[in-house]
Amino acid sequence: MKVKISNIMKKGKVFLLAYDQGLEHGPTDFNDKNVDPNYILDIAKKGKFTGIILQKGIAEKYYKKSFGVPLILKLNGKTNLEQGEPIAYQLCSVKEAIKLGAKAVGYTIYVGSKYEAVMLKEFAKIEKEAHEKGLPVIAWMYPRGNAVKNEHAKYILAYSSRMGLELGADFVKMKYNGNVNDLKWIVKSAGKTKVLIAGGTKALTMSLFHETEEIMKAGASGLAIGRNVWQRNDPLAVSKVLREMIFNNLSYDKAIKEYRKCKK
Ligand code: FBP
Asked: What is the pTM of this model?
């Protein structure tokens, strides 16, 4: 079956809202508003995201197939309590994801971890099944563990994006190290695998727009962003501007003007 990468794309670009931090970090990331999954689903819809990333528990209890924003089911995950070599085992099957209405699945590989091989094997199985069912696969490629001296180094990030291509991932989700030339090489190394950039901890709005301009100029296909949207008190204004930057190449200068307009 043909893999439908267009499931989570618009005009060849991607804008995903990530909300799996409750498992990865715990509710320390949340306040009274964004602790409620319905608040996030509302942002995903009104912010016109091309997909929402959830773990299975939230999808089961809050996501309806008729919702209108495609679901990306995250199939593995872990807490940040265990401080040893990172490993995140599969927690949900492709079958369950499809039953919940998923239009794509995601899986984290801790590149360089002592347990890398376990995750590669699990990923390969998941990818095979997802592709047989026509579902695109996003690999969170996060270099981490004792063997990784600097997880932001160009070398290890490019190695990770290339791994995504070698493994057959449709998209890799990576962190931006703040160097646009490094990102160009990382995107080039990924070949036909599309590169999505994660948001990270909440940044100043201006730096978020500045980085987004660089990210898109470097050839990435879009953002898969969480805290930098839903931790703000104006998530819809920020989403609107980011959307324009991703889908309509809005420049940084125009983004600032647009943002000020949205705030009025
Ligand atoms: P953010 O945009 O909030 O950084 O989310 C992106 C993401 O990949 C989430 O999907 C995931 O929960 C989190 O980052 C994991 O980040 P880390 O492993 O660095 O704690």
From this structure: 0.97
